[in-house]
Amino acid sequence: MILPNLKLLHSNMKKQQIKKAKFQSKINGIIFNNIFFIDSIPYKLAIGVRDKNLYFEIPVSSEFTIRPYLGDKYGEICKILGLKYDKNNPYSPKKFFESINIGIPSKVCLKDVPLPHEIAPYRSHVNQPEKIYFKGWWDNDLRGEKVQESNLEKTRALLDEEAYKMCKKHNMSSQWSDKSTDEKMVTSFWKNTKKKT
Q1: What share of the chain is helix, strand, coil (3-state, %, to 5)?
Q2: Which of 14, 26, 89, 116 is the most exposed place for a label (fewest CB within 10 A)?
Q3: CB–CB of 33/49 below 8 Å?
Q4: What sign does the CA torsion over 81, 87, 93, 97 have?
Q5: Residue from 63, 69, 68 nearest 6 by CA
C-alpha cells in the first residue's frame, strides 16, 4: 500500500533538511499523533494516541509503501475509535492507513520537529526510559572512558542517525534527565566542542 502524502511531506522535509516531523491525523474524532522519520532506510512512521497509551512504528520504503498490517494493535485501534463489528462494512487496516494518509501535511516547518521527549513514548525500549529530556553532550575522553553501547542506541532512537554516528566516532555520550526543567536545545556537539573531525 502506498501513502502518497508521505512523498509530498518527504520532499518538503528534504528541502528544509528536516529529518523528523510530527503531525496529527483525526479519525472518528480521535487525534492520532504521528512522527515521520527519514534519517534511515527504511523510513519509519510512528503512530500514537497519548492518553490511550497506544504507540507503534511501521517501516516505510523509499517508494513510500507500507505493509497495511496492524497485528495486535488492530483490536486496540478499533476500541479507541469506538468501532463495533459490522459484517457489511468491516473496518480494515487499509482503511485506517488511508485515514492516516489524509492527515499527512505536504509542508512542515521547524516547529514541527519533535523534541526527544516527544519521540520517547514510541521508543521506550531505550536505556533509562524515564530519562527523556536531553541535557547535553559528554566527552568520554575526559575520563579515559568509552561511550556505552546503550547510550549510543538511545542517541540513535531519540535524536537521529547522524548524532549516533558522530557520538560513536568521537567517543561522546548524550546526557539525559527525568526532569523537564533540565531540557536543553539539541545542538550538534561537533560544532560546539573542540573535538577534531
Answers
A1: 40, 25, 40
A2: 89
A3: yes
A4: negative
A5: 63
Instruction: Give 23's contacts (C-beta < 8 A, 6+ positions apart).
Output: 9, 34, 36, 103, 104, 105, 108, 112
Distance CA 48, CA 121 (A): 9
Which amino acid appears at position 150 of this protein?
S
Q: What is the DSSP-derived secondary structure letter of residue 58? A: E
- Residue 104's identity, in one-letter code, is I
Beta strands (DSSP E) in the chain are 20-27, 30-37, 43-49, 54-60, 133-139, 172-177
Cell of 169: 566516532
User: Among residues 53, 116, 61, 105, which one has the least CA distance to residue 80?
Assistant: 53
Name the strand (E) or helix (H) holding 122: none
Model confidence pLDDT, tens digit, residues 98-125: 999 999 999 999 999 999 999 999 999 9
- Residue-by-residue DSSP string for 153-175: HHHHHHT-HHHHHHHHHHTEEEE
Distance, C-alpha 14 to centroid of its chain? 16
Q: pLDDT, tens digit, for every residue of 5-23?
A: 999 999 999 999 999 999 9
∠ CA 92-95-97, rounded to 5°? 110
